[in-house]
Amino acid sequence: MRSFWTEPFLWIHLAGLAACPLALELVWLGLAVGDPILPVWLEFFLVAAIGLGPILWMQLTRPFDIFSILIFALKPEQLTQEQRRLLSLFKTKTNRVITIAATVLLLWVLWQIYRVAPVAAPVVPLSPRWHFLGLLGAGLAFLISHLFLQVPVAVAQVLLTSESEFVAATPYPVEKIPQDFTVPGVRVNKILSLTAKEAATPSVPATSSSAELTADQE
């Protein structure tokens, strides 16, 4: 097992992939509100632009900082050298072709959802006159689904990095992290109660051990 696989933030964000289909279900419900008012291609483009554009731009220019959960993010100066090495890998190992391919795949999924949206119309709680609200909700849900696809895809690429490449990676400069990565939410000193190093190495009460050793020597 690679040493950096003990980093809990990697697995937390990889598991976020499970939220993608749930968000796509909300897209389906949003598109089912009322009948199209604008041309079909225009409504489809509107939802696609809201959901795909911001996340694709983020991942290609300032990748998502995985050392964050919900509305909290670790301050850059609180990251260990190993964690900053991982950030370097996100800059070098994330393949732009795969990132764009994931976007194209989600665009195809959106078109399939748009085609079958009328099937969900009977269960939508909103009145048909709220069609534009449904479109907006679908766009925001599509944005969330795209985020929960792209971040796990990037994490998966980093997880496939060899141990030698990880060790050779230079820790990302602390002062450049806010400029080169998207650091979401409120910055805090600590999020998880256990760091990767602490989780991998159980603590031993040094005081009692020293006392026992002294007693034995006597």
Automatic annotation (TrEMBL):
Keywords: Membrane, Transmembrane, Transmembrane helix. InterPro entries: LCTMP-like. The chain crosses the membrane at residues 9-31, 37-57, 94-114, 130-149. This is Low-complexity tail membrane protein. It comes from Allocoleopsis franciscana PCC 7113.
